[in-house]
Amino acid sequence: MLLSSNAGPDELKKLVRGGVPEKLRGRVWSALYRMKVHDMREAKGPNYFQNLCSRTAEAEIPENHKRQISLDLLRTMPNNIQFCDRNSEGIQKMQSVLHAFCLHNPQLGYCQGMNFLVGMMLLFVDAEDAFWCLVAIVERYFPSSYFDQNLIGAQADQELLKDLLRNKLPKISAHLAALDIELSTVTLNWFLSLFIDSVPIEAGKAFSHQRQAELVE
């Protein structure tokens, strides 16, 4: 299999970028994310996620996070049968993962966009692996400021995008400026959800392949 081969980092990245077969996607994605958080999983112990889930019923999560999570649950892939109503299994798992993350990282808590990251992962992995995938993305893949209250990292990416647009597509950039359209009002959520909410589902999976490839060191 891909991860048990003797492929070096560059070759492994190339293989992942080429796409992972559907039936192997959960195993490969989980393995790549585990590589990023192996030390943390070892330090926290094997029952860490279950322990967090058992605490979520004790009202330790700030109300503003619980309220926003509740609102965002049914906004996540509403046309997918796993997330179509509040009692569906996918919605219950997503809520557990997001609540657990709020307890795991109380300084950050919940940021809109995390629901789409978790939703995509839950299509292929179980709730515990989805939790660790979220930890890897938020705490190891991106800088700590990307999903914080001020979204400093994500806002910096919006400025980079504007520069790219001015350099690569100057006519479109000028047209948006003439209409007084602030690009980030459209694109910020694209970045926070890693484009999962902005493109067709298959394209979202393709973006996920690219992201996972960058986890290879």
Give a structural overview.
GO terms for molecular function: GTPase activator activity; small GTPase binding. Pfam families: RabGAP-TBC (PF00566). This protein is an all-alpha fold and 217 residues long. It contains eleven helices and no strands. The chain has helices at residues 9-17, 22-44, 48-55, 63-73, 89-104, 114-122, 127-141, 152-168, 170-178, 184-192, 201-213.
Compact summary:
α1 (9-17) runs antiparallel to α11, α5 (89-104) packs across α6 (114-122) and α8 (152-168) packs across α9. By secondary structure, the protein is mainly alpha-helical. The protein is 64% helix and 0% strand.
Uncertain runs: none
Proportion in β-strands: under 5%
Radius of gyration: 18 Å
Largest sheet geometry: none
String of helices and strands: HHHHHHHHHHH
Mean pLDDT over the residues: 85
The total beta strand count reads 0
Helix content: 55-70%
Q: Please count the helical segments.
A: 11
Structural class: mainly alpha
Apparent shape: globular
Query: What is the end-to-end distance?
Result: 18 Å
Helices, strands, pairings?
Layout: H1 9-17, H2 22-44, H3 48-55, H4 63-73, H5 89-104, H6 114-122, H7 127-141, H8 152-168, H9 170-178, H10 184-192, H11 201-213
Organism: Caerostris darwini
Pfam family, one: RabGAP-TBC
Domain Rab-GAP TBC: 19-217
